[in-house]
Amino acid sequence: GMLAKDSVVFIAHKNITDPLAVPTTIQKVFMVDSHIGATYSGMVADGLHIIDIARDSAQQHRFVFNEIKSIESIAKDLASYMMQATQYGGIRPYAVSILIGGIDEEPRLFEIEPGASFLGYKADAIGSGKKAASDILIKEYKDNMPLEDAISLGVKIIKKISETKINSENLDVGYVQDGHEFTILE
Questions:
Q1: Residue 43: which residues within 8 A CB-CB, separation 6 or more?
Q2: Phi and psi (nearest 5°) for 151?
Q3: 164 pLDDT band (50/70/90 cuts)?
Q4: If you placed Cys at 112, which of 44, 76, 84, 118 could pair as Cys (CB 3.0 to 4.6 Å)?
Q5: What pLDDT does residue 3 have?
Q6: 33 with 58: CB under 8 angstroms?
Q7: Are 157 and 16 in contact (CB under 8 A)?
Q8: SS3 of 42, please?
Q9: d(CA 53, CA 47)
């Protein structure tokens, strides 16, 4: 995930290992609310559940207060929810890292780790290629880069760290621009 000029971008690799799998049934980038997107790395069921919790948090706030909820508030809600699983016997921590971001007053991006800590970022990577992707981001990410450049950088990073050939079936790209709804590219 990256902050770009007036936008937030998510690029995710769908690591499809089963040759009989239908790629269109796997999704890694999600709209949480009209101004928020997210992606996850880790156990699919945990990731989908946490994305649903984020959606519920955003929609409940919109319904009760008739306004959008800040990205930071949703990230805190998710961290708090995930923290409960680390504190009580009989349940396991969520085996998932989440990147959630969007635009409220400004573009924002947060990572929530399996241990429930969260931190804001300009650009961040999660998953098995985190170290290599972070190294590239440190060298090549620039503040206020255009949306197209951020998408290109993300795709370039996935190509470098992926063990499989990248194509439209195993790559998800989504973004939100100021004044527009979250969009997932086809």
A1: 94, 95, 96
A2: -65, -45
A3: confident
A4: 118
A5: 97
A6: yes
A7: no
A8: strand
A9: 10
Instruction: Give 103-136 as a DSSP string.
Output: ESSSEEEEEE-TTS-EEE-SB---STTHHHHHHH
- Which residues on neighbouring strands pair with residue 112, listed in sequence order? 98, 118
Torsion of CA 40, 173, 15, 56, to 10 degrees: 30
Which tokens is 169 given? 């079936």
Judging by DSSP bridges, how do beta strands 7-13 and 2-4 pair with one another?
antiparallel
The token pair that represents 162 in the structure block: 């992926």
* Count of other CB atoms within 10 angstroms of residue 70: 17
The single-letter DSSP state of residue 97 is E
What are the start-end ranges of the E strands in the chain?
2-4, 7-13, 29-33, 36-42, 96-103, 107-112, 118-120, 171-177, 183-184
CB contact at 8 A, 58 and 48: no
CA distance 172 to 88: 35
* Residue 174 DSSP one-character state: E
Look up the pTM and report it: 0.94
C-alpha of 38 from chain center: 3
Share of the chain above pLDDT 90, in %: 83
Which whole-number Å values give the CA distances from 136 to 33, 123, 157, 171, in the listed order? 30, 11, 7, 19
